[in-house]
Design a protein that fits this description.
Strand content: 5-15%
Number of domains: 3
Structural class: alpha+beta
CATH topology of the largest domain: C8orf32 fold
Distance between the termini: 89 Å
CATH class of the largest domain: Alpha Beta
Number of helices: 16
Helix content: 40-55%
Number of strands: 8
Largest sheet: 4 strands, antiparallel
Shape: globular
Order of helices and strands: HEEHHEHEHEEEHHHEHHHHHHHH
Radius of gyration: 25 Å
């Protein structure tokens, strides 16, 4: 008996394959569109005034008004573009650009040991608006700026033998290697010949770990060697971006380093359980302060000072009054009016020695003096600060580093 095998026509097979590919493509497109819409909704939906924000009231934080992260990111992109253009106008050398970027971020994102706390997780624009952050937030802002300059950057979480991260820093890709950089301290470790360190090279240089204050923080070479690379929008790879979208869809939350200040320290505030509420007067104060910070970041220093000067007379939110006083003086420094900044911060420190920004005031006063060549006096003020960054800066000056005076808030 002969069996005949019926072979389908080749044209029929091709048509079936085309229909299958089209159906799979359509289904994939619908699925991805659903994911993107879901992810976008998490950014666009209004955020309750009392639940999350970048300003302070007592021991809680509040957003100034109902807003969305899309708007914040647009403002952030405008700010970053302007800063990128400023840096590129000063130098075309990648090393020089990173130096300027590090100096700016360390100045504009003050560490939590020199500012009010608590600090919350937020996008880079609101971190800059707040003017303070933990180590991972400073590393985040720096990585965004470096990437915008066209220099690859990423965050790294140092981990001890128990898998706990006590510090977050960054890496930049320069001279064909990933070089270690610490935006929280304003440190870009370099050898005497001017070459930078990889995190592995730094891990095995005990003198360097001591020089930059890491041994005093209890960090060892092990923490550096076992660092975990951490990427987040907008400087992550495409592969990790896809994973991020799926995480958003699954309502998964990311956290960064633990102590001294990772995102994992943030407590989500339940709107229904808040013991205190903002009054209309307090909300008006926050909105006014928010406007001043916006003008300050846009380099409208006169406009910012005009609003800052109006806030201290209002006793509704005392920590906002402290912040307004502090940033009023910072506007002089930003304009490079170092003599005016010196006089202002000396007066503030004398009149209000226990205000919440006192360690940053010591630092800005010292940097104003350094800019005027008054190194001996600058050292005396740095010694009064308990901020880790100020102590490392003091050590940098005392070692007579040839790079100590190149940029403010910057340590080689």
């Amino acid at each position: 008996m002969t069996y005949l095998c019926k072979v389908p026509n080749l044209e029929i097979l091709v048509n079936r394959l085309r229909r299958a590919i089209k159906q799979v493509t359509r289904a994939t497109a619908i699925f991805m569109a659903f994911i993107m819409i879901s992810a976008a909704f998490t950014y666009i939906k209004p955020i309750s005034v009392e639940t999350i924000g970048y300003q302070y009231y007592g021991d809680k934080t509040y957003r100034v008004e109902k807003t969305n992260q899309i708007t914040d990111l647009l403002h952030g992109e405008k700010l970053m573009r302007r800063k990128v253009n400023q840096i590129r106008s000063q130098t075309s050398d990648p090393q020089g650009q990173i130096d300027l970027a590090l100096s700016w971020v360390t100045q504009y994102v003050r560490p939590q040991d020199a500012s009010p706390s608590p600090v919350i997780s937020d996008d880079y624009y609101n971190i800059l608006k707040r003017g303070a952050g933990y180590c991972d937030q400073a590393a985040y802002v720096f990585s965004v700026l470096s990437t915008r300059l066209g220099i690859p950057a990423r965050m790294i979480m140092l981990q001890d033998r128990d898998g706990i991260s006590r510090h977050t820093a960054a890496e930049v890709y320069l001279d064909k290697k990933w070089q270690y950089i610490d935006p929280w301290l304003g440190v870009f470790p370099h050898r005497s010949d001017g070459s930078g360190y990889t995190r592995y090279e730094l891990a095995y240089d005990q003198l360097a770990l001591e020089k930059y204050g890491y041994t005093e923080q209890g960090l060892t070479g092990y923490d550096f060697v076992h660092s975990e690379i951490f990427e987040t929008f907008p400087f992550m790879s495409f592969h990790n971006l896809v994973r991020k979208v799926f995480s958003k869809f699954g309502n998964l939350r990311e956290s960064s380093s633990g102590t001294p200040g990772g995102l994992s320290n943030v407590k989500q505030i339940d709107d229904a359980n808040l013991a205190t509420r903002l009054t209309d007067e307090q909300l008006d104060v926050l909105k006014l302060y928010d406007r001043a910070r916006e003008l300050h970041l846009n380099e409208d220093f006169d406009g910012a000072r005009e609003i800052y000067s109006r806030l201290p007379v209002n006793q509704e939110l005392l920590v906002i009054n402290d912040s307004a006083r502090f940033f009023f003086g910072v506007t002089y420094f930003d304009e490079r009016k170092y003599g005016s900044a010196e006089k202002y911060f000396k007066r503030e420190i004398k009149d209000r020695p226990t205000n919440v920004w006192i360690n940053s005031e010591y630092r800005f006063l010292a940097e104003s003096l350094i800019a005027q060549g008054k190194l001996a006096e600058a050292k005396t003020w740095l010694r009064q600060s308990s901020s880790q960054g100020a102590m490392v800066r003091l050590k940098n000056l005392e070692q007579n580093s040839p790079f100590a005076l190149t940029s403010p808030f910057f340590i080689y």
